[in-house]
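User: Here's a chain of 323 residues. Predict its fold as tokens.
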Amino acid sequence: MGKNTILVTGGAGFIGSNFCDWLVTRGLNVICLDNFNDYYDPSIKKRNIRWLLDQPNFELVEGDILCTKLLETILETRDISKIVHLAARAGVRPSISQPMLYEEVNIRGTLNLLEMARTYGVEQFIFGSSSSVYGNNEKVPFSEDDSVDNPISPYAATKRAGELLCYTYYKIHGINCIVLRFFTVYGPRQRPEMAIHKFTRLIDSGKPIELYGDGSSSRDYTYISDIIDGIEKCLDKKLGFEIINLGDSNPVQLIELVRLIETALCKKADIGWIEHQQGDVNSTYADIVKAKNILKYSPKIKIEEGISEFIKWYVKQTNVNLT
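Assistant: Prediction complete.
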């Protein structure tokens, strides 16, 4: 692996593997670090990066961001110029039942990587945060200047802690840190437990789906290619420390999302209604003025097109798995 190598943590996951695709196809040197944990079927992540394994500018390291010895070995033996930190224990609801695990992975893991960046002189650190840090923010759209002192899940709290650690390492050690708050990312390779993937699978198989509340909750769904575009625009930005929203800035109600999936699948959903779940926010809505000004970020894929593209991918994957 040559100079100016980029370390992508969580590189076999949904966002990480798509970003590794982007880097490798542009001839950049990539080390993908992933522990292939059992949060969902590890074979899915292995499939995400299968084609990359044969590429000369791609290296897979199977391991954990909690293992400092492994991180030291990676940083000592490769010329890492940038770290794109996407590894995390994800999901709001599981964090309520497993808060210690989320604290360990999302906070200690991030701290480990920042220490490596400091020790080995990494020039750029990009941290994948989440819109969940805004909690039930009453002001819309959500701006990076809004207060984020009221997280309503351990997951959100750990992501906010990661942001604060990034600021601390910028302030004390001068590491360029860009925090990207992702707003409900979807598209090909989306994790199977996430709403769009889960609803699609259940509707397609004729099984009932459960909707929380009254269907009026909304999310700012952001297509994966727009998120990848936002991340790559940060690679060479020396901003000191910045927090930047990456979203579509177009909230979609839950019931409308289901209707879009029904239309794309040409199947009707069997809907069951259940109570609002603890930890879930009522809505998300990204103010992306800062992203537009600093990164020239401009999301291109609207929800109708994005759902259609996801369904095409889903059908293709389903057919492959059946053969």
